[in-house]
Amino acid sequence: MPPAHPFDFDYARDDDCGDTLHEECGVFGVVGVTDAANFVALGLHALQHRGQEAGGIVCHHPDHGFNSARRFGYVRDNFTKQSLMETLPGPLAIGHVRYSTAGSKGQTAIRDVQPFFGEFSMGGAAIAHNGNITNADALRKELIERGSIFQSSSDSECIIHLMARSLQRTIPERMEDALRRVEGAFSVVAMTRTKLIGVRDPLGVRPLVLGKIGDGYALSSETCALDIIGAEFVREIEPGEMIVITDKGEIESTQPFRPRPSRFCIFEHVYFSRPDSIIGGRSVYETRRQIGVELARETPVEADLVCPVPDSGTPAAIGYSQESGIPYAMGIIRNQYMGRTFIEPTEQIRNMGVRLKLNVNRALIRDKRVILVDDSVVRGTTSRKIKEMILDAGAKEVHFRIASPPTAWPCFYGVDTPQREKLLAATMSEEEMREHLGVDSLKFISLDGLYRAVGEAEGRKADCPQYCDACFSGEYPVEPADMIEKGFVMKAAE
Ligand code: SF4
Question: Is 25 a residue of the active site?
Answer without folding.
Answer: yes
